[in-house]
From TrEMBL:
InterPro entries: AAA+_ATPase, ABC_AA/LPS_Transport, ABC_transporter-like_ATP-bd, BCA_ABC_TP_C, P-loop_NTPase. Residues 2-248 form the ABC transporter domain. The keyword Nucleotide-binding applies. Keywords: ATP-binding, Nucleotide-binding, Transport. GO terms for molecular function: ATP binding; ATP hydrolysis activity. Residues 251-272 have a biased composition (Low complexity). Pfam families: ABC_tran, BCA_ABC_TP_C. GO terms for cellular component: plasma membrane. This is Amino acid/amide ABC transporter ATP-binding protein 1, HAAT family. Transmembrane segments: none annotated. Residues 248-272 are annotated as: Disordered. SUPFAM superfamilies: P-loop containing nucleoside triphosphate hydrolases. It comes from Natronoarchaeum philippinense. SMART domains: AAA.
Length: 272
């Protein structure tokens, strides 16, 4: 669905993303992992057009061929079907859960979607769409709750709902489990799994139990370079990956999903 060639981003003398060749297939769930500062967020920002690359290209698959979207801005990439959730909450806090999703669905509908006085049915259509999405992400009972009153885990579900409201083909999820309690993580993992059944998903995640559990593929960035890309088990055994990032990680046989490899510099998100 989306691929990069020699994708590079430099900030002054620092190469944050270094010649990355990457491809995400239809309905594939790939996790992007790596230590703090490895370049994961920068890579996301290059895919969505939030940042322009120093070199290389981004292409998106549409109409049976590849379209060069390297110079697209975030609005253009969103219209093509690339949507992301954010590490830092991007919600309207005082608006209800339903309104947050309805506004996102309406925004995707384009300029005419705001001329609701011309089309009385449009408002209801977007609201119906929003309710169906809330149902899918398990927030139907919270439709009238202000976003700020949701639990931390529910807010992460709402962020996924907002991304889904853009009717994406490719979903980029930026640390969706950050700061979420372990019982809420199980529900979030189920949601990620379900979303990946009909979307291509690229997941940035520090919780290795989650990564090993849900991913079809794992890609590893280290100092901006893609040092491994393959099935979870093969990547876990890879000696370069062990050295750069996974040193000491072993899957927890008890199913405890608390393992977090984000390192000391950043505990991986806000408190629960
Ligand atoms: N706008 C910027 N200007 C200068 N340097 C930047 C900028 N954005 C990121 N960097 C640097 O680029 C490198 C990669 O950062 P990035 O945020 O992409 O890493 P990351 O893998 O997402 O880290 P984390 O896991 O902590 O979120 C870091 O050294 C960071 O300091």
């Amino acid at each position: 669905m989306i691929r990069t060639s020699d994708l590079t981003k430099r900030f002054g003398g620092l190469t944050a993303v270094d010649g990355v060749e990457f491809e995400l297939g239809e309905n594939e769930l790939c996790s992007l992992i790596g230590p703090n500062g490895a370049g994961k967020t920068t890579f996301f920002n290059l895919l969505t057009g939030t940042l322009a690359p120093t070199a290389g290209s981004v292409e998106f698959r549409e109409d049976g061929g590849w379209t060069d979207v390297t110079d697209d801005d975030p609005h253009e990439t969103a219209l093509r079907g690339v949507h992301r959730s954010y590490q830092i909450s991007n919600l309207f806090p005082t608006a209800t859960t339903l309104e947050n999703v309805r506004v996102a669905a309406q925004a995707h509908g384009g300029v005419d979607s705001w001329k609701l006085w011309r089309n009385a049915d449009a408002f209801e259509r977007y609201e119906r769409e929003a309710r169906a999405i809330l149902d899918r992400v398990g927030l139907a009972d919270e439709a009238d709750t202000p976003a700020e009153a949701l639990s931390h885990g529910q807010k992460r579900h709402l962020e996924v709902a907002i991304a889904l409201a853009g009717d994406p083909d490719v979903l980029l999820l930026d640390e969706p489990t950050a700061g979420v309690s372990s019982d809420a993580i199980d529900r979030l993992v189920e949601l990620i799994r379900s979303v990946a059944e009909d979307h291509a998903v690229l997941l940035v995640e520090h919780n290795m139990d989650v990564v090993m559990d849900v991913s079809d593929r794992v890609a590893v960035l280290h100092q901006g370079e893609l040092i491994a890309d393959g099935p979870p088990n093969a990547v876990r055994e890879d000696s370069a990956v062990q050295e750069a990032y996974l040193g000491g990680y072993e899957a927890d046989a008890t199913g405890d999903t608390s393992t977090d490899t984000s390192g000391d510099a950043d505990p991986g998100g806000e408190a629960a």
